[in-house]
Structures are given as C-alpha cells and as structure tokens.
C-alpha cells in the first residue's frame, strides 16, 4: 500500500521547508508574488562549465535569479521553480562547504566547474571536479543543472523569438 500525504512544505523527516522555498511545494503563486519570491532566493547566479575532452566541445550554462539563462546553446529563460529548486538543492547539499577542487589521478579527463553567487557577494563559491571524482552531492547538483538546462527553450543569441534559420 502506498502512503500519500498532502504537501505541507515539510521534509521527509518532518522538518519544515524554509519559507523562501515553500512555494515549490504549495502548487503555485499569484503573479504579484513572483518578484518578491525571486528576490527572496539566496543565490543571484548559478553557472556550470564542462570542459571538453580531446575532441569534444565544452559547454557553459549560466542562470540568473531573474530568469535569464545563457549558455553554449544560446539564450533562454529558466523558470522560477527550476531556479528555486536548484537553490534549495545547493543549500541542502551544503555546496558552500565542499572542497574547492576534486582531482582524478591520470590525464585526459574533463572538468566540470560549478560556480554559485550568493546574493550580496561579489565572488562566487567555486567547486572544480576534474575527472568526475567529487562527492555524490556534487554529482547531484551537476546533474540537476544539466536537467534544468535540458528544459530551457534555447534560442540563438540575437535571433528574435519564434524565428528559425
């Protein structure tokens, strides 16, 4: 038998979800609530860069709290829900307390670099992962960023919306 619960913005262990993330679990926002909800998120910008290995190209994605997204695929918009969920995951998995660099033995590996700018801070928290040997929490954050990037509708920079080549 499957147990279901109403979503009262709490963790599996019953601890409450921080107030600035409650909207993720409450089913929606009124349009007038969107600006203050965005402003309450703790991170201004989230960026991930993958370096290529030998013949493979690298990629970058940058997402801002205001909904802008830029990357190797062009420009787009990240939803408030996706950006907020990334912020919550980054906090929940203690990204800020991770080592700044994880290094695989050997050569010819790719590097993933995740940078997170906390609101009000000029310098980001940076974690480099050469060879994919960082902790599983870092893998979860990298995978979530890639997943959000896959949901963004990308347009070529400088190309009007709705046009194609």
CATH domain class: Alpha Beta
Task: Quickly count the helices.
Answer: 3
Question: Looking at the structure, what is the overall shape?
Answer: globular
Number of domains: 1
Structural class: alpha+beta
Q: Count the beta strands.
A: 7
- Under CATH, the topology is which? Mago nashi protein
Main sheet strand line-up: 4-3-2-1-6-7-5
The helix content, as a percent range, equals: 10-25%
Residue windows where pLDDT falls under 50 for at least 5 positions: 1-7
Task: Please state roughly what percent of the residues sit in beta strands, choosing from under 5%, 5-15%, 15-25%, 25-35%, 35-45% or over 45%.
Answer: 15-25%
pLDDT average, as an integer? 89
Q: Which second-level CATH architecture applies?
A: 2-Layer Sandwich
Q: What distance lies between the first and last C-alpha atoms, to the nearest angstrom?
A: 52 Å
In CATH, the homologous superfamily goes by the name Mago nashi
| Gyration radius, rounded | 18 Å
Please outline the major beta sheet: 7 strands, mixed
What features would you describe in this structure?
A seven-stranded mixed sheet has the order 4-3-2-1-6-7-5, covered by helices on one side. The protein has helices at 34-40, 80-92, 136-151; strands spanning 43-50, 59-64, 68-71, 74-77, 101-103, 111-118, 125-130. The protein is globular and about 50 Å long. It has a single domain (19-151), classed as Mago nashi protein, CATH 3.30.1560. With 165 residues, it is of the alpha+beta class. The longest helix is centred in the last third of the chain and has 16 residues, at 136-151. α2 (80-92) runs antiparallel to α3.
